[in-house]
Design brief:
The radius of gyration is 17 Å and the shape is globular. 48% of the residues are buried. Helix 1 runs parallel beside helix 6. By secondary structure, it is an alpha/beta fold.
Length: 262
């Protein structure tokens, strides 16, 4: 499986590269990156509702760098607890917070201080400060209690982890019985070559750590989740510089993926 990084891979360098990349997105969302960002991208490429995004502060939507649309996978109900396990600037998190309402909770975890600041500020400005809580942490070791979450949202971040089994194991740990995983992530059609998988810059661009599509369900099942299935696809790298850095037969794209905890 491609769920772990190559032997000898510099994990510390990868984490530093990812942190630096998304710190730069937080500080300069209009800068030059290998991937798309922002509300227009979310609407045109990923089928977000433009009207719904108008209720969110620009500081939140401008920093959006997801690859799919996990909130299209299934319902988020009033009063539920939702966890966005690498929330970035908080766009998905705030959309979920509006759905759970005042009786629910929306918890965002992120390792990038500037992203956490942006998400917390956006929640206050959107009038969702009483519902949203932002926590410092990593998705390999979530600062969230066992079986305390109804829905885990994940958008374009599983590929960033060098230990995907641990990440999905943490998702299973925090989900309540019957809880759902709504995940969007990058997939490829075959395992990437070593020189690509060993490139931290391409990891940070959400490509080098992408799983072959068939391994996504295997990973979910091995971690204790059930009923895994792909429900939608997105051409998230169209017209980006990342598109030309890998072989075309890989068919790099993103999927919306559902699984549940039994």
């Amino acid at each position: 499986m491609a769920s772990t990084c190559p032997v000898g891979f510099d994990v510390k360098r990868l984490r530093a590269q990812v942190l630096a990349t998304y710190d730069r997105v937080a500080r300069d969302p209009g800068g030059d990156f290998h991937f798309h960002r922002g509300a227009r991208y979310a609407v045109d490429y990923l089928r977000y509702d433009a009207d719904e995004l108008t209720f969110l502060p620009d500081e939140c939507t401008a920093r959006f760098a997801g690859v799919g649309n996990p909130l299209r996978i299934g319902p988020v109900r009033r009063g539920e607890t939702v966890l966005d396990h690498a929330c970035g600037g908080g766009m998905d998190l705030l959309l979920a917070a509006r759905r759970v309402g005042p009786q629910g909770r929306a918890i965002g975890v992120d390792m990038t201080p500037a992203m956490r600041d942006a998400a917390a500020g956006a929640a206050q400005r959107a009038g969702l400060g009483s519902v949203v809580e932002i926590r410092e942490g990593f998705f390999e070791e979530l600062p969230v209690g066992d079986e305390s979450v109804d829905v885990v949202l994940s958008n374009g971040v599983l590929n960033l982890s060098p230990d995907k089994e641990r990440v999905v194991g943490e998702i299973c740990r925090v989900l309540r019985p019957g809880g759902r995983l709504y995940l969007a992530d990058v997939v490829v059609q075959r395992e990437l070559k070593y020189e690509v998988r060993n490139n931290p810059e391409l990891w940070a661009a959400c490509i080098a750590g992408a799983l072959p599509e068939y391994e996504l369900s295997d990973l979910a099942l091995a971690s204790g989740l059930r009923d895994p299935r792909i429900v939608e696809r997105f051409d998230c790298f169209r017209d980006t510089t990342a598109e030309g850095k890998v072989a075309r037969d890989l068919r790099v794209h993103a999927v919306n993926f559902y699984a549940r905890k039994p």
